[in-house]
Structure formats: C-alpha cells, structure tokens
C-alpha cells in the first residue's frame, strides 16, 4: 500500500460461506464477497483483514472514510489475517483462535450461522520480505500462526526459514499443515497464554544462522516486547531486521509496537 492510500482500502460486507474446526481451538471461516475477486489488492502473504462479526440480532455497520462510524455505533471490529485468498472463487479463509476468556469476535465467529453477513475492511500489509535477507525467522503464538503459515507457503525456498510457535499443546499443531517447513512448537501445556516465557527463552537459546536475517513475529503485546528485547538487545540483531508486534493484550495497557 502506498502511504497516500487511506485505510480501509476496501470495506464491505462478505458472506460467511463455510466454517470448520482445524484443531480444538482453531476455527477456519471462509468468507465470500464480490470484492475478493481478481482486483482485490493483495500484495503480500498474511495481510491484515479487519472483521466485524455483528452481535446477535444486529447487522454490520461499516466505517465511513477515515475509519469513522456513524454516531452511537459501537461494534466490535477486530483484526485477523488473510490465511488464504482465492480470487477465482472470491473467497478468503480466516483462522480464528477460540481463546479464553472469549471475546465478541471469537464468540460470534463460532456461533454466526453459515450465510450470515460479516463486515470486512482491508487489506493491510503486515509482513514484507526483505530481498537481501539470508535467512528468515518467524515467531509468535496462535494469533501469528495464520500469518506464519501464509508466509511460509509463499516463501522463496532458497532462503532458509525457521518458525518458532507457542501453542497450547500438541493438538494445536494441526493448524499448520506444512510438513516440509522447519517449524518448532513450544507447548504451554495448559498454562494460560502469555503467562510463560517459552518464546523469549527459545530465542535466547537459538543458534542464529550467519548472514543477514529477517525476523517477523506477533504475539501478546508484552510477549512481543520481550521478543524484541531479546533479539535486538541480547542477540544484537539490527533494529530494522526485527519486527515483533502485539496482536492482542492480556491486561493493562498496550505496549508501544516499535518497528
Ligand atoms: C494484525 C493482527 C492480525 C491478527 N490475526 C489473527 C488471526 O489471524 N487469528 C486470530 O485468532 N487472531 C488474530 N489476531 C488477534 C485478534 O485480533 C485478538 O485475539 C482479538 O482480541 C480477538 O478478539 P475477541 O473479540 O475474540 O476478544 P477481545 O474482546 O479482544 O478480548 C476478550 C478477552 O480475551 C483475551 N484475549 C484476546 N485475544 C486472546 C488470545 N489470542 N489468547 C488469549 N486471550 C486472548 C483478552 O485479553 C480479553 O481478556 C490478530 C491481531 C492483529 C493485531
């Protein structure tokens, strides 16, 4: 996206045409819209799609130019990732984590009947490959999994790639079907999300390859901050080679995402 283009690039209403469980905690919803055809402005894998699953009994209210809503409208728009886009069928898959405590987005994504209207706005680029990178490291929790999967599916195989992903336990590994990728799973074994230091510990212990790297990650806001601190501080990677974003907040205030 050029800087002059405003967000949302596109906003509209899609139809939820399919839903299936990938794992006990990960749901795939398939959205269909005229706008998801050939002229959908996809640039990179794993772009951001902001979604509104309207509360029961309400219809979608779209934002106006500049992301303003009509007075009195308070609908729960949440950010998700384009897991897969098929311009031929005009469909986009989004993988939704059924987290605890449940929020409006994951509650409605699991409940909304097939055929329902879902608001969308986007897309927005989040990951862009560095052409001069000798290796790629992707890391995060379940909310980063859809982006990591989309990135690895389109990744140039000549550049070695490694993914470190923190999940609840072995049953969640099925959310990523990339048998040939070097993916290392970190299990929380029942501990609540963002209460462990698995990701930071694994990054501390990791043998980083030689050469210029690119790191992209996303997780809970404080976990993402720890990832940035370990990689830029303790491991000495240049700041601009490391992007780790807060994708959700466990409690308290958002941590500033410095890219
Ligand atoms: C750019 C971007 C892309 C994202 N892509 C995806 C994606 O593809 N799939 C996906 O599942 N999520 C994704 N997320 C994360 C998602 O937006 C958040 O998890 C969001 O808070 C879910 O909304 P909700 O209405 O279900 O819960 P909220 O109303 O936002 O939160 C309700 C409660 O749940 C807690 N909570 C929120 N998220 C989590 C979580 N992941 N684990 C544990 N507790 C949580 C909150 O702390 C709060 O207490 C993305 C976020 C960003 C910023």
Looking at this protein, list some descriptive labels.
five-stranded parallel beta sheet, seven-stranded antiparallel beta sheet, binds flavin-adenine dinucleotide, globular, Elongation Factor Tu (Ef-tu), domain 3, 259 residues
Helices and strands, with pairings:
Elements: E1 10-21, E2 26-32, E3 48-52, E4 77-81, E5 84-86, E6 91-97, H1 104-111, E7 117-124, E8 135-140, H2 145-154, E9 161-167, E10 182-187, H3 198-205, E11 213-220, H4 221-234, E12 242-248
Parallel strand pairs: 8-9, 8-11, 9-10, 11-12
Antiparallel strand pairs: 1-2, 1-7, 2-6, 3-4, 3-7, 5-6
The structure holds flavin-adenine dinucleotide (FAD).
Strand content: 25-35%
Structural domains: how many: 2
> What oligomeric state is this?
single chain
The CATH topology annotation of the largest domain reads as Elongation Factor Tu (Ef-tu), domain 3
The CATH architecture classification of the largest domain is: Beta Barrel
Strand order of the largest sheet: 4-3-7-1-2-6-5
Helical content class: 10-25%
Computed Rg: 18 Å
User: Could you tell me how far the N terminus lies from the C terminus, measured between alpha carbons in angstroms?
Assistant: 17 Å
User: Could you tell me which ligands this complex binds, including any ions or cofactors?
Assistant: flavin-adenine dinucleotide
Report the major sheet. Answer: 7 strands, antiparallel
Nearest-integer average pLDDT:
92
**Count, helices:** 4
Topology pattern, helix = H, strand = E: EEEEEEHEEHEEHEHE
**Strand-pairing-aware structural class:** alpha/beta
What is the assigned CATH homologous superfamily of the largest domain? Translation factors
Low-confidence stretches: none
CATH class of the largest domain: Mainly Beta
């Amino acid at each position: 996206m050029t800087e002059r283009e405003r967000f949302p690039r596109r906003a509209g209403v899609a139809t939820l045409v399919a839903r299936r469980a990938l794992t006990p905690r990960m749901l795939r919803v398939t959205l269909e819209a005229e706008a998801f055809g050939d002229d959908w402005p996809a640039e990179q894998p794993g772009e951001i799609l902001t979604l509104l699953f309207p509360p029961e009994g309400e219809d979608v209210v779209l934002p106006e130019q500049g992301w303003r809503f009509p007075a009195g409208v308070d609908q729960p728009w949440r950010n998700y990732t384009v897991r897969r886009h098929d311009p031929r069928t005009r469909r986009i898959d989004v993988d939704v984590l059924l987290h605890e405590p449940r929020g409006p987005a994951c509650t409605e994504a699991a409940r909304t009947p097939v055929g329902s209207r879902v608001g969308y706005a986007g897309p927005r680029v989040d990951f862009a490959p560095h052409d001069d990178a000798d290796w790629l490291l992707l890391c995060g929790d379940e909310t980063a999994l859809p982006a990591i999967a989309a990135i690895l599916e389109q990744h140039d195989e000549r550049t070695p790639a490694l993914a470190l992903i923190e999940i609840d336990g072995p049953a969640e590994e099925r959310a990523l079907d990339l048998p040939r990728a070097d993916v290392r799973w970190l299990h929380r074994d029942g501990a609540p999300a963002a209460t462990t230091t698995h990701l930071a510990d694994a990054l501390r212990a990791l043998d980083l390859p030689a050469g210029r790297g690119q790191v992209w990650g996303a997780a809970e806001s404080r976990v993402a901050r720890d990832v940035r601190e370990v990689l830029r501080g303790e491991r000495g990677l240049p700041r601009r080679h490391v992007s780790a974003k807060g994708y959700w907040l466990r409690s308290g205030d958002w941590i500033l995402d410095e890219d």
